[in-house]
Structures are given as C-alpha cells and as structure tokens.
Amino acid sequence: MLCATAVMASGLAAAGEPTAAARTESAAAAAAETSSLDKLFAELKRERNPQAADRIAKRIWNEWYKSGSASIDLMMKWSNDAVQAQKFDVALDFLDQVVVLQPRFAEGWNRRATVHFLMRNFGKSMADIERTLALEPRHFGALSGMAQIMKETGRKELALSAWQRVLDIYPMMRSAQGEIATLSEELAGESI
User: Fold this and answer.
1) Structural domain boundaries in the chain
2) Interval 43-63: pLDDT, tens
3) Packing angle of the helix pair 140-152, 106-118 (nearest 10 deg)
4) From CA 19, how far away is CA 165, in angstroms rounded?
5) Which tens digits make up the pLDDT trace of 90-119?
6) Which residues make beta-bridge pairs with 12?
7) Which of 86, 171, 174, 192 is the most exposed place for a label (fewest CB within 10 A)?
8) Do 13 and 19 meet the contact criterion of CB atoms below 8 Å apart?
C-alpha cells in the first residue's frame, strides 16, 4: 500500500479521491508484490535443500514485512522492541494502531497474534491468525501459530492438520516436520 504522503504526492482529486494515476500506481505496486511472492512460494515448494529453503523463507518474510508506510514500519519496530522487553501491553498498543491504520497489512495482524499468544490469550490470537490467513492464506508463520495453539489447548488432531498445511506450503520446514512426527506418534499411541 502507499503511505499517505505518497498518495498525496501522486495527486489527490479535489474531492479527496486518488487520481487515476495514483490508483494505477498503487495497483501496479500490489501486482508486482503478489508476483514476487508467487515466485518465492513456488521456489519454496520445489526446494529440497533445507538451508536453501530457509533462505527463500527469509525472502518471503522480508516481503511480508514491507508495509509501504514509514509510520507503520516504525510502529512495527516499536512493538518488536516492546516484545523484546516483555512489555506486551505496550506492543499491543502499537499493533492495535497498525491494524487500524492499515487493515490489509497481513503482518500487522500476524504480529499482534504472536503477542496475544505470548500473553496466552489464545482466543484473541486465533482471531488475528484468521485475519492474517484471510489476507495471506500461505502465511506459514500464522499457520504455525495456529498449530501451536491447537497443541497447547490439547487439540492434537487439529494441530497435526495445521502443521500439514504448513508443510504443503513450506515442505522443508524442519520444525513442522518434527512436530508432525511427534504428534503422529502421540496420536497413534492414544488410539491403541
């Protein structure tokens, strides 16, 4: 998305609507980002070397972190700093603003889901995960969070299903592979 100053610089119509040029520029930027992510996800799915897959996943995360707004980026940094200091309420204050100001920025929702998870507010975390996945269904980070919540709340079958969804997107994710092996063994043992 374009930040407010970029939209204004592109020109606003007298009624406050973006000009045709601004709308075209915004649509072109969104299409380029989608195309780039599509290529990265295709590479991630094909890659069989775990280290190379990790590098591709990092490139995907870098794309997800791009909000298109210096203000949003700054609030995301401040929220991250607050999480590092274990000031989760402060982090939530920043992330609440991020999702209000830029509701189509999937990583804002995902980051807020993570903070809710760290605070053990699993219901709120799941709600934000659902918003993340509505915006970016391939968000393997959000799916991993969902799997962790399902496991934490004793719903092993749903956790296993979520981890399998992660591997459909990111087949070489070692943590997902390990979780699937562990949960499969646990569920097999429970059925005996």
Assistant:
1) 50-121, 138-192
2) 999 999 999 999 999 999 999
3) 20
4) 41
5) 999 999 999 999 999 999 999 999 999 999
6) 18
7) 192
8) yes
